[in-house]
Write a structure and sequence with these properties.
heterodimer; A: 431 residues; alpha/beta; Thrombin, subunit H; 3 domains; ten-stranded mixed sheet; seven-stranded antiparallel sheet; 12 helices; B: alpha+beta; Elongation Factor Tu (Ef-tu), domain 3; OB fold (Dihydrolipoamide Acetyltransferase, E2P)
């Protein structure tokens, strides 16, 4: 099987065209160049002119190279053997393990029938107070981590990977710095989470086309695990690189750009990945956390903007902390009413106080005199930031709630907190 | 079906070019045959003997030479009893049926009938043999939910027909012939209880279109009082992400005073549809005492479903709305979000290599948006009754900037604009409709003069607060400061509303009028207050009392008790009503 062609008609960037018949849209081909073999995928057919994007990139491809069509779409092998392994965007091993070729599943499959979904209603614990307590992550939620280059978002992801209550972790790295890749590998193996993790890694020096395959590969594997009744957590970093890779290919193929050079289907492309997050009726689930770096800290940039419309909230990672104000978990009210009865009230009160603290801080910086109340708020803000907001804090939800009461009691009197009396009687620390 | 076929000559995403031999019409439906399935598609451009078609499914695996079969029909919705309570995709496939056949996923190439062909409905004829009927008139009824579902002479029949025969009262399926009509030349037309109508054509079987003057209650104070929507009118809700567009529409879909609600989840999150699906069957519609689901149709084409059927979904929805309007019902269509529909147009336009307009949207964007909203309206039907379609669409502007093409094109054609602001939603002031930029051309449930007074308070308050940011609280006069507190109070107790509280979310017209009168009395009075601290604490307690009041059932003991407390508080500061305000309230407040 597989037709072979020895004449490449054109090479533009990472896209080549070949004259061929009977080729299917999205079919894979193998191209043999002087640097070795690479996969390529059909992305346009016009009569007998077939365009293919080469995974390894167009560099060094010659017009006489051999193109062999494989007769199938991009697939990924699925079995328990995946756990603990690392692959690249073409599905080849990045570690020293054997290549997996059994039980191949097509990637980028159809979306889940909405009537087969159930309402997200289970909390996913991460032991990070700013998440568990203030913006609870819910099983099957899709949430981006909006951040800026230089922030410790990969450290945050690694911590979530190690601590989250998930059966399987799938990590998709796009345009990762090699150091970051090593860091993930190291952190996960030290943290003992490697054995339940599958990694699909594209580093910054790998070919662009492979970057585009990472989310689909990761999510296809996640979907298979979820159908085996597993709770899967998919961590993607960084989706802005994914969008940029799409932009690169679109421009190469002379598509009309819509906004800052991004293709017009950016929203649909991002949505078809994020929407893979699901809680299956009578089966497992997929939760997606995806880093989106905002160029120039601009939330109106097309990538974070479109993402925000798709996802169920966002975490803002800024200054090494998850900001309580910009961050929002839209699904938190589905779960935080049934954790502990003081959860919601304490969360609201602490955020309200923190907001007052911010106002006071502004006043202080403008040189206004500080009242006694202001002093209390300043003390509170400092404790809150150090004891709860810092990313190094590692507490269960219950410990975090207890600590929250302690902080309040240390700074304020009971009446000043505005919390309902019956909760006060039960939870206010006696000293 | 015509034996008209063609073959694929090019594939570019979901746009496919097909070489054909016979006759092909624009917007005709055709099917592409690939190895494992047949894929529904629509002709969107014809050049010579090549038709370009958009495929409503993923196009993986299609190759040149694959056969395409043309059907000769346009994309149509199947109309008949059994639409209510359904959950459809954009092409009117019932999703629960697809789930039975295909399982977890929406596998491509699997289609199901829009109506249940097995179910029997109790048909009561209203026409008799010899009657002369025209398209849009009805020949019988069947009970559906709490309505009498009218069985129409299909909208596509031209001219007049004579009833040759009609069945007796009894149980029939939607596919059984219930009547036979004959036209002037003696040709017989058998009628069933269902027929198809091309979704992109507006239904015009009405006697006349009337001006939308009757206010549609949404129970949202900020909407009904400040920026009302009329039955048969149109409105749009643009806002940045997280501003609460969907929650606002969700609330409206629950409480709006209409007969039928059609929810078009167009290119948005699947989770939100699941929420509606979980919640609605449990909720009871107080008007009919039936589950809310029985007055609802959901058309959902969520963001990860194929983009071409996203475009079709808004048309399918509005066609179903028009169908129920023809029965003399008031229908509300909520489309979330029209930007995703516009983006679907943009994607296709890009593939067609059309010359792009602003932000690469096609040049015909405005006329398409206008044509869609124009399908709303309040009409008088052939039998003298009236019905309406009201359309409310959310817009998701890129970066939250209302200057973008979709928002601007929409603003030109709607009758009310509910602009959501990031500032208000960040401050957790919900619904986050910005009162300073929104507008409505429809009639409010409260008197114009009262409304103007409230708006003037908001405007003055805004100006004072802008000033206070510069000169500080200390530099502001007591009078200005009180005006500012008044506007803050109006905002907190009237504009803001808790959509998750059963009582507060459901604030009827009568209550809105009652509360506004009491509120105006407080806002329009002067008080004997010495300093700002006193003013602040007075308005804070007043605000707290009003909020408690909002949570009390209208007219019950607690409601009355709180009202008395408000009154006492008012008297404690020797509130004195200003003369013009007294005039304003002369018919109300004791």
């Amino acid at each position: 099987m597989g037709k072979v062609y020895n004449r490449i008609e054109s090479i533009v960037g990472n896209v080549i065209t070949v004259k061929a018949n009977g080729v299917q849209y999205k079919e894979l081909a193998q191209i043999s160049t002087r640097f070795g073999k690479s996969l390529a995928q059909v992305n346009k057919i016009e009569g007998d002119i077939v365009s293919l994007q080469i995974f390894a990139g167009g560099q060094g491809v010659s017009t006489g190279d051999e193109v062999r069509f494989l007769g199938h779409e991009m697939r990924v092998s699925f079995s328990e053997d995946l756990l603990g392994r690392i692959f690249n965007g073409s599905g080849e091993p990045r570690d020293k393990g054997p290549a997996l070729t059994e039980n191949l599943k097509a990637i980028g499959g159809p979306s889940v029938n909405p009537t087969k979904r159930i309402l997200a209603n289970r909390m996913l614990r991460t032991n990070i107070p700013m998440i568990d307590m203030f913006n609870t992550l819910v099983v099957s939620q899709k949430l981006p981590i909006f951040s800026i280059s230089g922030e410790p978002y990969n450290q945050l992801l690694a911590r979530i990977a190690m601590q989250a209550e998930a059966d399987v972790i799938v990590l998709g790295g796009m345009g990762l710095k090699y150091d970051d890749f090593l860091y993930f590998k190291d952190a996960l193996s030290k943290g003992g989470a490697l054995s339940k993790t599958v990694m699909f890694i594209h580093t910054a020096s790998d070919p662009t086309v492979e970057c585009m395959m990472i989310p689909d590969m990761s999510l296809a594997v996640a979907e298979q695990f979820a159908l085996q009744n597993k709770d899967v957590l998919v961590l993607l970093t960084d989706m802005t690189n994914f969008a940029d890779a799409m932009k690169e290919i679109a421009i190469t193929q002379e598509q009309v750009p819509s906004n800052r050079g991004y293709p017009g289907d950016l929203y649909s492309q991002l949505a078809s990945r994020y929407e893979k997050a699901v809680d299956f009726a009578d089966s497992g689930s997929i939760t997606v956390l995806a880093v989106t770096t905002m160029p120039g800290d601009d939330v109106t940039h097309p990538v974070p903007d479109n993402t925000g419309y798709i996802t169920e909230g966002q975490y803002y990672l800024k200054g090494g902390r998850i900001e309580p104000f910009g961050s929002l978990s839209r699904l938190k009210q589905n779960v935080n009413g049934k954790t502990r009865k003081d959860h919601r009230a304490l969360m609201d009160a602490m955020i309200r106080m923190y907001s007052s603290y911010k106002d006071t801080l502004e006043k202080k910086n403008m040189g206004f005199s500080m009242s006694k109340w202001d002093e209390k708020l300043l003390r509170y803000g400092e404790l809150f930031e150090n004891k709860l907001m810092s990313l190094s804090v590692n507490l269960t939800l219950e410990q975090a709630l207890d600590l929250g009461w302690d902080i309040l009691a240390e700074c304020f009197s009971r009446e000043e907190t505005g919390i309902k009396s019956d909760l006060m009687n039960e939870f206010w620390p006696n000293k | 079906m015509t034996e008209n076929t063609g073959k694929v000559v090019s594939v570019n995403g979901n746009l496919i070019s097909v070489e054909f031999k016979g006759v092909v019409s624009m917007n005709e439906i055709c099917y592409v045959k690939v190895d494992d399935a047949i894929l529904k598609s629509e002709v969107i451009r014809i050049r010579g003997n090549v038709a370009q078609i958009q495929v409503y499914e993923m196009t993986n695996g299609i190759k040149c030479g694959d056969a395409v079969e043309f059907t000769g029909e346009m994309l149509s919705a199947e109309l008949g009893p059994g639409l209510l309570g359904q959950i459809y995709d954009g092409l009117q496939n019932p999703l629960p049926v697809l789930a039975e056949r295909a399982g977890w996923f929406l596998e491509r190439g699997i289609y199901a009938d829009g109506l249940n062909y097995e179910k029997k409905w109790e048909f009561t004829p209203t026409a008799k043999v010899g009657d002369v009927v025209r398209a849009g008139e009805y020949i019988g009824t069947v009970p559906e939910s709490s309505f009498l579902h009218k069985i129409f002479v299909p909208f596509y029949l031209l001219g007049s027909y004579t009833v040759k025969s009609i069945v007796a009262k009894g149980e029939y399926t939607v596919k059984e012939t219930v009547a036979v009509l004959v036209d002037g030349r003696g040709r017989e037309v058998p009628l069933t209880m269902s027929f198809k109508w091309p979704v992109k054509r507006a239904v015009k079987c009405y006697s006349e279109r009337l001006a939308p003057v009757e206010t549609m209650e949404t129970k949202v104070r900020l909407v009904d009082s400040f920026f009302p929507v009329a039955k048969g009118g149109t409105y749009c809700t643009p806002g940045p992400f997280g501003a609460g567009k969907t929650v606002l529409q969700h609330t409206t879909s629950k409480y709006a005073d209409v007969d039928i609600v059609i929810i078009a989840a167009c290119g948005e999150r699947a989770g939100e549809v699941v929420e509606t699906l979980t919640e609605f069957p449990e909720l009871i519609d107080p008007k009919t005492n039936r589950s809310l689901m029985e007055r609802t149709i959901i058309i959902c084409n969520t963001s990860s479903m194929p983009v071409a059927s996203r475009e079709a979904s808004v048309y399918t929805s509005v066609t179903l709305a028009e169908y129920y309007r023809q029965m003399g019902l008031h229908v509300l269509l909520l489309a979330d979000s029209t930007s995703r529909w516009a983006q679907a147009l943009r994607e296709m336009s890009g593939r067609l290599e059309e010359i792009p307009g602003e932000e690469a949207f096609p040049a015909y964007l405005e006329s398409y948006i206008a044509a869609f909203y124009e399908r709303a309206g309040y009409v008088r039907l052939p039998d003298g009754s009236t019905g309406s379609v009201t359309i409310g669409g959310t817009v998701s502007p890129a970066g939250g900037n209302f200057e973008e093409p979709v928002t601007q094109a929409t603003l030109k054609v709607v009758g009310a604009f509910h602009g959501l602001s990031r500032e208000r939603s960040d401050a957790r002031k919900y619904p986050a409709i910005d009162p300073l930029i929104s507008w409505s051309k429809y009639k409010s449930v409260i008197d114009v003069e009262k409304l103007d007074f409230c708006k003037s308070i908001l405007q003055q308050g805004y100006e004072t607060s802008a000033m206070m940011k510069v000169i500080g609280e200390d530099g502001t006069t007591l009078i200005d400061y009180i005006t500012y507190l008044k506007s803050e109070m109006l905002d907190a107790v009237y504009l803001q509303q808790n959509s998750f509280d059963l009582v507060d979310a459901n604030c009827g017209t009568e209550r809105q009028r009652y509360v506004t009168d009491r509120l105006i009395r407080i806002l329009g009075s002067s008080y004997s207050i010495e300093n700002k601290d006193e003013a602040r604490s007075f308005f804070n307690s007043m605000r707290q009392k009003f909020i408690d009041w909002n949570y009390a059932e209208f007219g019950n003991e607690e409601f009355k008790k709180t009202e008395t407390e408000i009154n006492n508080l008012y008297l404690s500061k020797k509130g004195k009503l200003a003369q013009p305000i007294e005039e304003l309230l002369k018919d109300g407040v004791q």
